[in-house]
Amino acid sequence: MGFEEGNKAALDELNQVKNRLRQLEAVFEHCHDGISIVDRHGKIVSSNPAMQRLYNLKPDDYVGKNVDDLVNEGIFNRSVSSRVLATGRPFTILQEVRSGVRCLTTGVPVMGEDGRVEMVVVNSHDVTELYALKESLRQSQKLAGGYQAELTDMRIAQMQKEDIVVRSKKMLDILDLARRLAAVDTTVLIVGESGCGKEVVATLLHRASPRRSEKSFIKVNCGAIPRDLLEAELFGYEYGAFTGAAKEGRPGLFELADGGSIFLDEVGELPLDLQVKLLRVLQEKEFKRIGGSKVVRVDVRVIAASNRNLQDLVNQGKFREDLYYRLNVVPLKVPPLRERKEDIVALAQHYVRHFNRRYGFEKVLSAELIDVMESYHWPGNVRELVNLVERMVVTSKGNILGAEEFPLDTAAPNLLQAGGGCIPRGVNIHEVLSETEKNVIFSVLQNSRSTASAARSLGISRATLARKMRKYGIRRR
Length: 477
What we know:
Elements lengths: L2 H28 L3 E6 L4 E4 L1 H7 L11 H7 L6 H8 L3 E6 L5 E10 L5 E10 L1 H34 L7 H13 L6 E4 L6 H10 L9 E5 L5 H9 L17 H4 L4 E5 L6 H13 L1 E3 L6 E3 L3 E6 L3 H6 L5 H7 L2 E4 L8 H18 L4 E2 L1 H9 L5 H15 L4 E2 L6 H12 L9 H18 L4 H8 L3 H11 L5
Parallel strand pairs: 6-11, 6-12, 7-8, 8-11, 13-14
Antiparallel strand pairs: 1-2, 1-5, 3-4, 4-5, 9-10
Helix pairs in contact: 5-6, 6-7, 10-12, 13-15, 18-19
């Protein structure tokens, strides 16, 4: 290569380097994020205009100074460069600047030929607006939570006007849906375990409807009437229909419910021949009395309920499929008491007051007894709760019902089963329950945004959670 050719190649390479430097300078000067270069001694050697805007300082106020000195002066609360220089690894921190700006600051080490950190490249991204948005969102969520709580209180108050005791969102949603369905005459099928409150839902459906007269609401337990009498009870009979029939005949319950509603509880117990007759009533609004030839027309709304799975009965050939679909127009599933623990305390206190008035007592539930009741499985649901409350009220010696009043021989198997193991001999069941409850509450609080959301996760009211937190000395951080 000649001299001229070598000189030209050197000039080209120099021009490329100059162009690269201009590009890097343009990036450095015009980057929206703040950029600083810190040497191995912790001194800021240069920074771009964006960093000057973040610090709200002139370059002479911090360039050439040590980052630790700037921390001491309060320019920013901590230094990422110091961490990088100490560890030799990239590091990211949330940095607060005296100007009020919050930055997500990252320091990246540049290693020298000796293997030591030669300099640190610091990049600071302004996240002040993000934090403002986060705080705004938190306040909005808090406000929404307050509105939700007020709405829940209004829903509870409305149910109290109907003499319905409820606190849980699950049950409130079911009752709200029942109230909306009350305005139309569609057939409703209420399903749920025995004693969980299906009749309460049926009563609300009737009371909130245009058919609200108490006299026109007929309740029938299909499983409590002997099969050979059930048809006569439901559809009535004419004179001479059978031996012992009244001379003037007798109207059935469907006729008595004309213009109102009839509640067929445990509808799955109906024999197949009566299912055919019920289907005709649902479809044609008519039937014939036993022994009669005259067609009786009725305007009645049918509300059915069952604690059995009617679909299973259909599969077994014990329930007509066409009747099942005719009844199951709008299904309402009432959750068992163990799935709506917020209702346990409210129901227990309601029935304590009820039995106090009946027997002339002044008894109250202790906090310890409430804890035990909330931990119990309640296989018999509300019906079992009412019976146990009455038992405790009438058998307790003092006015304060303590945990010892609860029939532990009934509760223990469920508690043990729920725990998946056995309690060793000599260990008090209350101590085991308390320790388990304390740990669960602490864990849920740690993973919840608020005590309100923690209470929902635990299936208890906010007041109950607050009381338990005081009991166990748990503070929300």
